[in-house]
Write a structure and sequence with these properties.
seven-stranded mixed sheet, hydrolase (chains A, B), Peptidase_S51 (chains A, B), Rossmann fold, 20% strand, homodimer, serine-type peptidase activity (chains A, B), four-stranded mixed sheet, serine protease (chains A, B), protease (chains A, B), alpha/beta, 26% helix
Chain lengths: 235, 235
């Protein structure tokens, strides 16, 4: 089983970037000398360099070195050799397109299967699922495939948002969108609320953080899963 | 120039399906004997038959006959011969995939260029833009292309939603998502609020309804466009 930390969001309201995850990062990457950062999702269109600087500052506060994948001449080799990888959030379509363009999707899978510790936030967490098809992002670019890493045997919806009963907006709720996903696809989906993360290790997938998560299975009513539950049977 | 009525949403809060558009539908399709309905976007996974029934009931209240495209043996021929077409909302990825699968994207373009009146709501409006890349929907299926009808020379974001200043949610706002779109793409985007529609005719594109719309251009600050404005220069 792979080793992964998959967070719904990088940042909680009123906090610094990765602040609430700082203690987790310290433990998760404790045996890693240098983490490779994948900045391809470019939130708000930020440059690779600026995004990497932001991540490096946050990792420095956890006592861990971090370097952007775009700084390597041979990105595939860097990923294969790496012992720790962090993929930041932003636009999932752009992230997946760039991973395929640089032939890194398979390299990532190999590296993680060989024991590299993988951390994701938001888009970086979404791609740990079977496909990117439960992303919330706009299709700003056309990727060659929607297939992603499959570190976990289901799909992930990051930034999961409960329906707002006071809303007068008629756009689909998140739950309706996932229902539409299940009118065509069969894999389960976990709606991961902000402040929650999945910890994958030793044949276990655990829900962490203070909140419960919402589980969606095809042709079943969605249900809540309490924090610290084991999700190993979800597939 | 084509003839089109492109609404942000089918339904306003507390109203029946297409209720607020009833007077517009009467005028827009006044010279059309039978409107062809495209139910492929299947909101919430509803069947083609049920969705067509819903649309037919609403059109009956406007005194207009409507029939589902899936009822025709030769869908391409039906579209080419049609004088009026209505595409309902739902999932844009599914809609676009089905239009390409049935080879209807080009048939629609031809029909509209030859004078067929085209009405869309939500996903049906999104596909009237140059590409579907400013949809809000989940990528529940992989379409062969993101290119759409191009009835208007820009992109449309239906159900446009202003940022909620009280929100503690860290998912991207609509404005941030469109900014990410413009980090890669150059065409303008109109954020069409619920209750607004575009009326395309006689070399004019007019904004209708009570609300203003938000216009996004690459490397410019977004701005508001008042209702009844002419958008013919937006490209």
């Amino acid at each position: 089983m792979s080793k992964a930390l998959l967070a719904s969001t990088s940042t909680l309201h009123g906090e610094e970037y990765l602040e609430y995850l700082n203690p987790e990062i310290k433990i998760f990457f404790s045996e890693v000398e240098e983490v490779i950062f994948i900045p391809f999702a470019r939130p708000g269109g930020i440059s690779h360099d600026k995004y990497t600087h932001l991540a490096a500052e946050a990792f420095k506060r956890a006592g861990i070195k971090l370097r952007g994948i775009h700084e390597f001449d041979n990105m595939q080799e860097a990923i294969i050799k790496s012992k720790g990888i962090f993929t930041g959030g932003g636009n999932t379509f752009l992230l997946v397109s760039e991973l395929y363009r640089h032939k890194l999707m398979q390299a990532l899978q190999e590296s993680i299967q060989n024991g590299a510790a993988y951390m994701g936030t938001s888009a970086g967490t979404n791609i740990a699922g079977l496909t990117m098809q439960t992303t919330n992002d706009m299709p700003i670019v056309y990727p060659p495939s929607f297939k992603t890493l499959g570190i976990v045997p289901f799909n992930i919806n990051p930034h999961y948002l409960d329906p707002d009963s006071n809303s007068t907006h008629k756009g689909e709720t998140r739950e309706t969108r996932i229902k539409e996903f299940h009118s065509i696809n069969t894999q389960p989906v976990i709606g991961l609320r902000e402040g929650s993360w999945l910890l994958v290790s030793d044949n276990k997938i655990e829900l962490k953080g203070k909140l419960s998560a919402r589980i969606f299975k095809t042709e079943k009513l969605p249900f809540e899963l309490e924090t610290n539950s084991d999700l190993s049977e979800l597939n």
